[in-house]
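Example record

One chain of 237 residues, shown exactly as stored in the release files.
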Amino acid sequence: MRAFIAGATGYTGRELVCVLREADHDVTAHVRPDSRALPRWRAHFGALGARLDTTPWEGEALASTLARVEPTHVFALLGTTRRRMRADGEERNTYEAVDYGLTSLLLRATRAASPRARFVYLSSVGASERGSAYLRARGRIERELRESGLSWITARPAFVTGADREEARPAELIAGRTVDAFLRALALVGVRGPARRYGSLSGAALARALAALAEDAHDGVYDAAALRAAAEQLSGR
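Predicted structure tokens for this chain:
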């Protein structure tokens, strides 16, 4: 596999770089050229044997990079948060600009420069072109991906969280733990299906799932239960 990972510095992205490098795959980890933590990520990814790429978010520049890298797989793990939107106060940090806009830009660049690559998209449970701005952004990308003509996979986890997450997101962590506790209670009385479909996944588990599905699965949408099974399968190899 020759993987190009957009969103490589995120909770799932950095775990995916590790998983793919442990399997000796060729990895290009994309980091924003204006990232304040660029020296840190250069050292981190370099130590793993991954290349760091800082191509600006411009269509022609991305297409040129993809033509050079010739990836077999393009991973789109992009997203912003309400906290970042409040902190930045900038138009570029919105669900429309990041979750939809940058992912759509990457999708178009992939179609233009690497049409044989498989596009692996990290979406969300409940993605739809109706509903919240977050879910609408992801629903639009899912539609564009289905219509793209590319080989593709869409992952729809529920909560992606864990104590190992560097970015402080206490509300999400608490919500994930609360839901997980409720689902475990259901499992104790024999109702196990919801726990696999809606239980939280750590970044490492989700990364293992994406790596396994990227190589082995057919095109399609994979929910949390399928992602959990794929992560367990890879762990058991």
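Notes: The two ends are 18 Å apart (CA to CA).
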